[in-house]
Structure formats: C-alpha cells, structure tokens
C-alpha cells in the first residue's frame, strides 16, 4: 500500500484547479455555477466515481490533474504544514458539542411531547422483547429460542437508533454478560447498519470543509463502503495527490437523537439509584461516563487527534499499522484517513488463505494492548473485529479511534503488583490493592473480602498459566465484585473487555489459546527491567520469601521474559544493582549477602564434587585419606543434592541471560563500574567474609572426619 506523507501540500494551492484552499469561497461559488443544485452535484460525484467496465477509474474532468505525489519522508517543513493543517481542523470543530446533563435536561425537558413519544417508542420495543422472554421462560423454551431472541434484540437496537446501537456494541464484547448467541448477533451491529442518503453525506462534506466535492476528490465511491453507528464511510481518491482515503461522514441529526435518548436514560438511572437497593454502583455516574464517551465520538477532530497519538505511541512496532490523518479534509463531522486494505480479524479462512496466521496477529494485538494498558495508559477501548484488520503484509491495523480511555499511572503499576500478589497467593495484599486501584473507598473493611478471594483463586491457581482461561478469571472476579461494595472504574472494565475480545478472536483459531499465557512474558519483562520503584519492590517481593531467595522464580521470570521480543538482559541486570546499592537498601543487602554466600559456597563445593567424580578410584583413596567410598565432603546426601541443584540453577539463569539476543559481554562493564562504588566494595567484602567462614567450617569438619578414629569392634 502506498504510504503518503501528508502535509507537504496541505493548505497550499491546488495545482489542478489553480485555486487556493485559502480562497475556497470563490471556488465554491465557481462550483455552484457548474452545479446549480445539490442533486446535480451529488449525481456528478456518483457518475465520476462509478468504475468503468474495464475496471479503470476515470480521470477527473480537468486535463491538468496532477500526478500522484511521490513517497517522501517527513521533513521539518512537512511537520510544520501538518501542524498548521491540524490547527485549521481544530478551528472547524470549535463549536463541537460537549456532553452536559444540565444542558440536555434544559433542552429536552422543555419538549415533553417529543420526550413522551420517544419514551413510548423505547418502552414498546423493549417491553415486547421482555414479554417474549417471559413467555419463553414459562414454556421452558428459553434455550431453544435464544438465537431467535438475540436476532430480535439486534433488530430492536437497530430500529431504536445510534444510542442503542452503541449500547449493543458494548454488550457484544461482554461475554461475561451475554450468552454466545447474543454476542454473535450483536456483533453484527458493528458495521451492518442502514445507510443515509449519499446526497446528504456529500452535502455535509462540502458544508463542513467549505470546498466543493470535485475540488477535493478525483473520485469517490457511489455508495458507502460501511455504515457505523455514528456515520458511514466512503472510499475516495484525493485530487491533489491520488492518495486512496477513507472518508467518514456523520449521520445527520444524530446529536439531537442521542441527546434525547440520554435525557431519558438518565431519568431511569435516577430511579434506580433511588429505589433499587441491591445495585450498589452509582448508575447515574455510569450513564454519564458512557454519554461523555459517545459525545466525544461525535467530534471527528478529537478522533483524529486520538489516532495521531495512538500512532505515535504504538506504531513504532513494525507489525502495527495506524492510518494517517488528512487534516485539511477533516472537521467535527468529516474524517479523512489513509485507506487500509485488510481482512477482519475474525475471518480466519480469508486470513489464512493469504498465508497469514490468526494467532500471530492476535499475539501482536495482545502485546500492543498490554503496552496500551500498562506502559502508556492510552488505549483503544473498542477493539471489536470490525476495528482490527489483518493487512496483506501481515500487519495488524487498528481503526476507529472514537472511543479511547486512559489508565491512571498509579493504577498501571498497581495492576502489575496485583499480578505479583496473585502469583504469590498473597490475598491480603490483593485485597489492599483494591484501594490503590480505586475499587474501594478507604472506609471499606477488606477483611471479609480476603476469604472470597482465597476460595476462588486457590481453585483457579491449581491450573498452570497456560491452562487458565481469562474469561474464567473475569467471571470469578465478577462474582466477588458483585458480592461486595466494589465500584469498578470504567477503565478497568474496558481493560477486561479488550483482553477478553482478543482471547475470543484467538479461540476461533485455537480452542486451547489462553490470553494469560500470551501475556505473561510481558509482565515478566516489565518486572525484570522496569526501574519504577513500585515494580522493583514487587520484583523483590516475588523473589524473596521468609528471608530466602527463590531461584526457581527468577529462572521462570527469565524464561518467560526472554520470550518478549523487547527483552534485554542488559536492562534486567542494571535496576537490580542500583536497588541493591541504594543507601536505604540495607535490609535487601543482608538478604543478598546471605544468598551470595550460599551461591558462592555451592559453586566451590560443586567444583570439589566434580573434581572428585572425575578422579580414578585409586586417586580418590589417596587424596581423601583412604575414604574414597564416602565422598569428598562431610554432607548428608540431601544437603549435597540441594547445594548442587542451587549451583545448576544459577548456571541455567546465567545461560538464559547469555541467550538473550541483546546479550553482549560489554554489559558487564557498567556493572564493573558500579562495583567500584564504596558501598559495592563493602558489600563484596562482606560476601567474601561470609564465604570464607562457611568454607573454613566445611574444611574443619573434613579434618575432624579424617582424624577421628573409627570405633573398635566390641569383642
């Protein structure tokens, strides 16, 4: 696909028509001379866009159409032009509406008849559906008719309009709330909606951009390529460059319709908060949160800015694609983006027919999602199959950036810490995490919650990470959250939804796929390499228990972390050293000194054992004073086996570090520099002293064994 750097021509003179964008009013007047009415303009655009029988797109009427712009790299001037174009787009969206419960209450409260008609429409549609469910339940046919009722609900949501379509889209990605039949039906709401007239769409483009259609595009599809809940999309060619673009146009009158629906839904929310005691969540706050997000989606300039920020943060990876924005052709109701050729991620057969693997793409999505959720905190909150495409060259393309969310910084680290506490089965610490995650208010006592966590996770953690299903985990947590006064933030629900959707997509290709197993390398890498104090403390908590170092945990972390393509053995070594030599790290130093003595002794004694085992039998007796059958050391077999296992474990860990693609012996140079610091020299002296004492004690035991006479036999 051709990639075009925008901005180099934006806001400048249109060569083909010889008319400047900045003189657009004169140009529009000129276009009206050629197209006296709106129908004729729309008709002309449709004819121009209709493909010929030979499959060649016709050229525009002007004979001086410029050739497509070459592919170039961004330069300083290009970036400046792009920023200026973005500023102009922001100017076109200056009057974009912002959600305000007070404003919609004043507006629609003064129109009681209109509100009454809409209320009757909603209650009639949903009341009939509820009645049919009740009849099915009484007849014992709830399961038998589920597919039929799911289709009925999808059609009802479609008839009720954009607000309920957005509601259905949210439900289609919540397997914890909806049965599979409903998920399948509601998923069709993503891009199978009725279209609105093309003439209205083309008129909206001209009105929003203050330019005639033929001055912007050399061709545009006669019909929408897709219809979404808030607008519909056309495929077009830009006149100035020939670039293929997707043009999204907002549905007419949608803001008015959504405002009325939220006015009515808020009324229901007030009644629930006041009279329904078993629902502890603030329903009105949830409604306002959802409404605020929908209103943000109505501003396409905001969506364009979301896309640009998303691209900057995450498209640095070669397997992630985010389309470019064309700012001079974007406003609050029109969004023009780079066209992306691709296949929906749930179309497994079509993807694999191109030589691609769905699981590879899903893994790319999981890794990108983890970076979104836990690294930068800015994440795509609507990752349904229609917004994720597999490109022919194997990239994962993200589309539709209207619904985004952010994870607070403290919550990102708290989530990783929460995983550490889960692995350690430290349920008291898990319960305390819910304060940091803002799930519980500070006055709530977590003591009764701890047994509930233990009952669920003790059973769940009997599975390995590769066996544990993410949906099972979500369902179990949901049951705990429902029983106690949790107030789950919107960002956390969206995180669960994102990962659940990705696991669901993977299950089409591999019924045994587990999102937790695919995510664990990322968590291991972050714990081993992140220098954030919270994560360093979490790593220590994971590795040390009851004053002992758990080498098995470190080995497992390195094995898993090395599976992450961004893992660096250099990064895994430096934070630990800095923490160890910190002035406030005396408690950790005592633990490390103790463990370093054990490891050093294990290597020294292991060398003795290896040397002994390599000797011929007669030499063993000579060297060890005729005691060749008893072994070289005065250690019981269990202690010796444990010592040798420790040595082998540390050796394996060093091999894992060496096997990292980023390993370079030069990484030891900064370590050597760190070891020159006074605290490090003192630490080394204490370790050497401890090793010397242990080896001296072993040597003394050996001497005593050698000089102690064997007991004489009793006559």
Helix/strand/pairing category = alpha+beta
The major sheet is characterized as:
5 strands, antiparallel
Helix content class: 55-70%
Termini separation comes to 99 Å
Oligomer state equals single chain
Strand content: 5-15%
Envelope shape: globular
* Number of alpha- plus pi-helical segments: 29
Task: Provide the gyration radius in Å.
Answer: 33 Å
Unreliable sequence segments = 1-74, 626-630, 668-675
Number of domains: 4
How many strand units?
15
Nearest-integer average pLDDT:
75
Family: Belongs to the protein kinase superfamily. ADCK protein kinase family.
Region (Disordered): 48-70
Pfam family, one: ABC1
GO molecular function: ATP binding; protein kinase activity
Give an overview in words:
This protein has 715 residues and is α+β, with helices and mostly antiparallel strands. The chain is built from 29 helices and 15 strands. The protein has 4 domains: 97-191 and 256-295, no CATH class; 197-250 and 302-339, Phosphorylase Kinase, domain 1; 342-513, no CATH class; 558-620 and 635-701, no CATH class. 59% of the residues lie in helices and 7% in strands. The strands form 5 sheets. Strands 3, 4, 5, 6 and 8 form a 5-stranded antiparallel beta sheet that branches. A 4-stranded mixed beta sheet has the order 7-12-11-9. A two-stranded antiparallel ribbon has the order 1-2. The radius of gyration is 33 Å and the shape is globular.
């Amino acid at each position: 696909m051709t990639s075009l750097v925008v901005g180099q021509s934006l806001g400048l003179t249109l060569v083909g028509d010889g008319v400047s964008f900045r003189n657009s009013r004169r140009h529009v007047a000129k276009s009206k001379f050629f197209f006296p009415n709106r129908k004729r303009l729309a008709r002309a655009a449709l004819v121009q866009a209709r493909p010929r029988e030979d499959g060649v797109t016709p050229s525009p009427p002007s004979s001086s159409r410029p050739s497509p712009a070459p592919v170039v790299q961004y330069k300083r001037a290009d970036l400046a032009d792009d920023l200026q174009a973005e500023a102009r787009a922001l100017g076109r969206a200056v009057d974009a509406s912002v959600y305000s419960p007070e404003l919609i209450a004043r507006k629609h409260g003064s129109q009681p008849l209109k509100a009454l008609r809409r209320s009757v429409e909603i209650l009639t549609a949903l009341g009939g559906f509820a009645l049919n469910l009740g009849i099915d339940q009484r007849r014992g046919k709830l399961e038998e008719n589920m597919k039929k009722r799911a289709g009925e609900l999808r059609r009802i949501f479609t008839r009720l309009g954009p607000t309920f379509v957005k509601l259905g889209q949210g439900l289609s990605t919540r397997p914890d709330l909806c049965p599979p039949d409903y998920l399948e039906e509601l998923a069709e709401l993503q891009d199978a909606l009725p279209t609105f007239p093309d003439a209205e769409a083309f008129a909206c483009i001209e009105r929003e951009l203050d330019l005639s259609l033929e001055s912007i595009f050399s061709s545009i599809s006669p019909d929408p390529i897709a219809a979404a809940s808030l607008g519909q999309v056309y495929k077009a060619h830009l006149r100035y460059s020939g670039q293929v673009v997707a043009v999204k146009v907002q549905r007419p009158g949608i803001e008015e319709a959504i405002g009325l629906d939220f006015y009515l839904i808020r009324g229901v929310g007030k009644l629930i908060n006041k009279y329904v005691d078993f629902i502890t969540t603030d329903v009105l706050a949830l409604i306002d949160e959802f409404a605020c997000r929908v209103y943000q989606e109505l501003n396409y300039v905001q969506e364009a800015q979301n896309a640009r920020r998303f691209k900057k943060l995450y498209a640095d990876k070669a397997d992630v694609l985010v389309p470019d924005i064309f700012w001079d052709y974007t406003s609050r109701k029109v969004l023009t983006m780079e066209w992306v050729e691709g296949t929906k991620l749930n179309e497994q057969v079509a993807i694999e027919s191109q030589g691609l693997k769905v699981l590879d793409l899903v893994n790319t999505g999981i890794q990108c999602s983890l970076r979104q959720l836990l690294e930068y905190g800015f994440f795509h909150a609507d990752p349904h199959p229609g917004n994720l495409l597999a490109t022919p060259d194997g990239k994962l393309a993200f589309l539709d950036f209207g619904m985004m969310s952010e994870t607070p910084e403290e919550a990102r680290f708290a989530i990783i810490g929460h995983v550490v506490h889960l692995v350690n089965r430290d349920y008291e610490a898990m319960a305390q995490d819910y304060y940091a995650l803002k799930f519980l208010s500070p006055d709530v006592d977590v003591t009764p919650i701890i047994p509930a966590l233990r009952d669920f996770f003790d059973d769940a953690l009997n599975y390995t990470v590769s066996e544990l299903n993410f949906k099972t985990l979500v369902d179990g947590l949901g049951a705990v959250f429902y029983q106690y006064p949790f107030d789950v933030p919107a960002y956390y629900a969206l995180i669960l939804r994102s990962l659940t959707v990705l696991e669901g997509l993977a299950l089409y290709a591999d019924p045994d796929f587990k999102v937790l197993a695919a995510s664990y390398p990322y968590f291991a890498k972050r714990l081993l390499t992140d220098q954030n104090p919270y994560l360093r403390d979490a790593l220590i908590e994971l590795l040390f228990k009851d004053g002992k170092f758990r080498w098995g945990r470190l080995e497992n972390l390195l094995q898993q972390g090395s599976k992450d393509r961004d893992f660096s053995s250099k990064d895994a070594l430096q934070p630990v050293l800095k923490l160890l030599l910190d002035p406030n790290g005396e408690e950790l130093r005592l633990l490390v000194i103790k463990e370093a003595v054990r490891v050093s002794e294990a290597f020294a004694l292991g060398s003795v054992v290896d040397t002994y085992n390599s000797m011929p039998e007669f030499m063993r007796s000579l060297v060890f004073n005729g005691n060749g059958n008893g072994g070289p050391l005065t250690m019981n077999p269990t202690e010796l086996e444990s010592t040798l296992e420790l040595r082998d474990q540390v050796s394996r860990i060093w091999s894992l570090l060496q096997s990292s693609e980023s390993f370079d012996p030069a990484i030891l140079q900064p370590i050597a520099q760190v070891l020159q610091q006074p605290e490090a020299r003192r630490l080394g002296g204490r370790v050497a002293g401890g090793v010397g004492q242990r080896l001296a004690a072993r040597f003394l035991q050996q001497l005593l064994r050698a000089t102690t006479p064997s007991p004489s036999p009793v006559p």
